[in-house]
């Protein structure tokens, strides 16, 4: 991974004004090697955009997949979040949740599609998130199935309200989710309580499968940390893009 080619990354910052959130939101956009505006690209949208780039090293992984594994070049859009209001935006019981979903689907997606040569079919879009970012990605797909059908959930925080919302769905056969959780995540303290993420993911997997969703599900030794998720990102990306 120290190869110079892998570390040479093109990352653009964009700022959009969100009428739903009533504030500006920063996007980090990774453009693949050989990027050309006359081509078209699959696109990965990440919650916690800053962390996916800084701690997940997603741009370096993307370079490696494209340059060394022969994966078709793709664009990554990281949506940044203020950690102070992250739970309010990502959790279904948060007071900014609805505004965030609307901003993502109705402002960020159109902005990217107007300014970058990304493909517009749901099968060419992937939503990725860790913890609450994983669960909010599922909620985005449930609300906007015409936009999102493919999700990477790294230790998704599928709290009771999220599970209740999944229960209300009759048919999720259109949904394809890559889920992974660490076996040492069975007693994790968050800002809203202590949770057993292993059980939350197992029970959510069952709920999704009962409704016909296609699930690739993994449990591995790991903690609720980027040190775990970072190593799992290439396989997760390959699941949809390889």
From TrEMBL:
Signal peptide residue numbers: none
Short name of one Pfam family: Esterase
Lineage: superkingdom: Bacteria
PANTHER family, per database record: ENTEROCHELIN ESTERASE-RELATED, IRON(III) ENTEROBACTIN ESTERASE
Originating organism: Paenibacillus glucanolyticus
Protein name: Enterochelin esterase
């Amino acid at each position: 991974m120290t190869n110079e080619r892998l570390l040479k990354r093109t990352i653009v910052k964009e700022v959009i004004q969100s009428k739903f959130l009533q504030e500006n939101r920063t996007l980090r956009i990774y453009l693949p090697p050989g990027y050309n505006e006359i081509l078209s690209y699959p696109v990965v949208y990440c919650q916690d955009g800053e962390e996916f780039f800084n701690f997940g090293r997603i741009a370096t992984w993307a370079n490696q997949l494209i340059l060394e594994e022969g994966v078709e070049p793709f664009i990554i859009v990281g949506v940044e979040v203020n950690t102070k209001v992250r739970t309010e935006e990502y959790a279904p019981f948060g007071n900014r949740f609805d505004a965030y979903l609307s901003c993502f689907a109705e402002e960020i997606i159109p902005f990217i599609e107007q300014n970058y040569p990304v493909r517009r079919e749901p099968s060419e879009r992937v939503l990725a998130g860790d913890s609450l970012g994983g669960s909010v990605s599922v909620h985005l797909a449930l609300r906007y199935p015409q936009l999102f059908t493919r999700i990477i959930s790294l230790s998704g925080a599928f709290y009771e309200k999220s599970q209740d919302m999944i229960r209300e769905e009759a048919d999720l056969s259109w949904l394809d989710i890559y889920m992974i959780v660490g076996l040492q995540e069975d007693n994790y303290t968050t800002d809203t309580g202590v949770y057993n993420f292993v059980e939350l993911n197992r029970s959510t997997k069952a709920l999704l499968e009962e409704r016909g969703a296609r699930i690739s599900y993994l449990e591995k030794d790991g903690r609720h940390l980027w040190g775990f998720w970072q190593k799992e990102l290439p396989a997760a990306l390959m699941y949809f893009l390889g």
